[in-house]
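tool_call: predict_structure(chain=1)
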Amino acid sequence: MKKLKFVTMACCVAAMGLTSCMNDNDDSGRELSKEELAYCLNTVKGTYQGDLIYIAKNVKDISDNTDTLKISWNITNDSTMTIKNFPTRLLAENISDDKLKAALAEAPNQDIDCLIGFINASPVQYLINPKAPSFNINHDGKDHKIQVAFYANSTGSFGSFNQTKKVLYMQIVEGAIYMDGKQTAYLTADTPFAFEAKKE
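tool_result:
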């Protein structure tokens, strides 16, 4: 089990690094060259086996309110990343409607495909734009298409590679629940998910 302090610090440090890089006077708004993009991809490309760190519910020790699951993801090219078999029950955790929450929690896990965009080469950093996974859910006797949307084009969803430790840190943030194409108020809180894995 990992402490929320670790998640918060790791995510804040990475986010500040992204913000700093994007606001740097020399590089502000500068697109990476083909050589830099190739370097970034070569640095992070591959399959990762690591930890998904999330905020746990109903814990007794508030100083240790996160938990971890083993998860894998891969980066195949300079614009695509796939998070494998993401636990759907975690996406349902902060839904206010108890029936919808229970129904979504029972839905099969799904891969989450993400578009990524490198924004810095030293250290290698990129923004993550997860595509919203869709679920066919029966709610109140009717079939509905439920989509879980994440932050996109935001420093809230990012990846950062620590070259010294050979560790990739990432975060994505669940930001909205859609039903039949319309945004709802069912999500009670934006929910961050942190990832950590050592590159072999």
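agent: The longest helix spans residues 4-23. Proceeding to next step.
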